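Why do we care about 3D structure at all? Because function follows from shape, and shape follows, mostly, from sequence. That is the central idea of this module. The next example makes it concrete: a single protein chain, its amino acid sequence, and then its structure expressed as tokens.
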Amino acid sequence: MQDINKYVEENKQRFLDELIELLKIPSISADSKYKNDLLKTAEAVKQRLLEAGCDVAEIHETPGHPVVFGEKIIDKDLPTVLVYGHYDVQPPDPVDLWESPPFEPVIKKTEIHPEGAIFARGACDDKGQMYMHVKALEYMTKNDQLPCNVKFMIEGEEEVGSENLGWFIEKNREKLKNDVILISDTGMIAKDTPSITTGLRGLSYMEVEVTGPNRDLHSGLYGGAVGNPINVLSKMIASLQDENNRITIPGFYDHVKEYSEAERAKMAEAPFDLSDYKKKLNVEDVQGEKGYSTLERASIRPTLDVNGIWGGYTGEGAKTVLPSKAYAKISMRLVSDQDWKKISELFTKHFESLAPKSVKVKVTTHHGGQAYVTPIDTLEYQAANDAYAEAFGKDPIPQHSGGSIPIVSLFEKELKSKTILMGFGLDTDAIHSPNEHFGIWNYLKGIETIPLFYKHFTKLKQAEKK
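And the structure:
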């Protein structure tokens, strides 16, 4: 594998150019007007898989956006790695906060990325990280370094809950059969501190609608006499957390795992500078559940956050209106054995109970997924550990992530496979936010490291058979 660094350096500009072309396509799964762009992206991914060495690359229609499947089978007696990624991206809103257009990728140097970073929606989440695997395959096939079989499943609905992925898996279990699932849709602690994500939070995503009078009213004539849905909604949301920032929904914490002091001490070994954390976010202080550190709040504790709230008049100037309706989108990150469907039910029941008689409430569950924890004493984890150790010169740190990849628990249930999360993004990459970016160094380092996983996994798997 000594030639991988040389190969990446020789092809660096092409690797960047290809990713930039992919990032130009606005594959926003949440907005139906971008349906053709999602199809265009799927076609592009299919073509790139073929060029990288896949013998088969197909676009599979689903009730939603298509799934791209590819494979390179060199020997059916060898292990098979299934790579999962997604080609859809988050909406770029608010667009006016972007320093450059979200679908016109540019490379800019930053303090963290002096060698440059690609700024574009999807740069890190997940086109850039997904494309590392395509280029890693290219290296292995062109240099006769592919030690096992590989399959790709690249979907177009991850950012809207992967609603049809279960449907696709159910119909293609044999096609997707594998020995391990490899995903790069997470991050690492720092450029000089590799880490493997061993825990993911679950998710429950809700939308609420509060309705008052049958039309918008003049706030002078009716204000103070009729319930204002925005005022009511604000009070209802505020009551969802107490003075210690604990969630007040009855039954919410029933299945939350409480970690031992020893386990928490081990997690605290991860390098973390609170002052630097606050400086990067430009905040004076942090906030969260009492009794837990910032890292714990962002990884092993459940949360409830308002992701959007609207109603009434929001245009330029003033309009003295008492609105008929108010809305909010609320997400809950879940941990341990919290079942997202049960939590959604608990939220709905509780939120409806908070409403005064002056308004009506409608609660809608959008999507969700289970939390996931992967053990660190497995052959699969050891292969990833060895790959990072060889590429970075040090062992990676196992780390719980605050993010959610709902399909990981689905994979284990339906495909009976363990998932390894080899992410190369940083927490400063602004995923889901304006000015999302992905460091060029991180992108290329991922391409260099991934083939090492194949090497070590195949070696360990073959030794297991003996």
